[in-house]
Every structure is written in structure tokens, then in C-alpha cells.
Amino acid sequence: MITNLNRIALLITVIFTLNSCSSDSSEVVNNTTTTALTAKVVEYNYNDIELATMRLINEYRVSVGLNSLEQINHISYKSEEHDNYMIANNVVNHNNFVTRSEDIMKVLDAKKVGENVAYNFNTPESVVAAWLDSPGHKANIVGNYTHFGIAIKSDPETGKKYYTNIFAKI
């Protein structure tokens, strides 16, 4: 019995560790955050790849009995900021996720925020399939969220695509 409990505890630790590497999430605690209020971005020009990727995510969610997510331009703008950061720094990571999530919580009154990032996928189908094959990324796609935003930007020097997909429960 104790061996089984130890195995379960180890499995839970591994899952949380994997999840922290492949995706990230944040929740409001006592409705307070430390960042200054920023203006809500209401305009965002989606490209065809971004629209197709959001459509595929929603189709998957509906296929497993979940609600489809509403897109919010402000979230896509915050996603684009992160894509630009990753391109400028030649990295793929969740750096400054806490700042992005706190902004979304303050500006949109979100209760929970999660994020998926990716790099160098050529089609919406390939990036969504990769996210669904990753437990941490899939947890965000099927998570208890109501809204999302996405930005997919190409590095002007290499042409490789950077993806940031942020989820929010509002």
C-alpha cells in the first residue's frame, strides 16, 4: 500500500514538473496582483494561420464535450508581445509569463491564465497535434477556460514561426 502511494506521489510530482516545462498557468489569489493596470487592447489583426489554429483548438474542445473558447484581442496582443520577445532573443520559453498573466487578470478580470508556446511548426494542424501529444500543453487546451488568444509570428531572418497561445477563465 505504501509503495503504491509513493508511486502515485512520484507520478504527480513528475506530471507537475513536466507541466511546468511545457506550459504554464497562473491563478488569482485573493483577487490581488502586483502589476499596474494597463489599457485593454481592442484591435488585433489575425492572420489566416492564427484563425485556423484557434478553429482547430475549438473543434477539438467541442469534440471532447467542452465549450468552445471565445477569442479576445487583448490576449492575442499579449501573445504577440511574447512572440516578438522570443524572436528578438532567439529563445522559446515562458519568460515573463507571470507579467502577462497578471496583466490579463487585471485588464480582463480573468481568474485563471495558462499558456502554450511552440516553435518551427509549419501548419496549424501540426502545432495543434504536437500540443495535444504533450500532456502539459493538452492540459491547457482542455482546461477550464472560457477565452483565448493566439499570435503566430515568423522570424524575419529565418522564416521560422513562433507560437504563443494564452488561455483565460473569465
Describe the structure.
By secondary structure, the protein is of the alpha+beta class. Helices cover 49% and strands 19% of the residues. It contains 6 helices and 5 strands. Strands 1-3-5-4-2 form a 5-stranded mixed beta sheet, with helices on both faces. Helix 1 packs across helix 6 and helix 2 packs across helix 5. The chain is globular, with a radius of gyration of 16 Å.
Keywords:
170 residues, alpha+beta, 5-stranded mixed beta sheet, globular
Summarize the structure.
With about 170 residues, the chain is α+β, with helices and mostly antiparallel strands.
Helix content: 40-55%
Net shape: globular
How many β-strands, per DSSP?
Answer: 5
The average pLDDT value, as a whole number, equals 84
Summarize the SSE layout with pairings.
Elements: H1 2-22, E1 23-27, H2 48-63, E2 70-71, H3 73-89, H4 97-108, E3 112-119, H5 124-133, H6 135-141, E4 147-154, E5 161-169
Parallel strand pairs: 2-4
Antiparallel strand pairs: 1-3, 3-5, 4-5
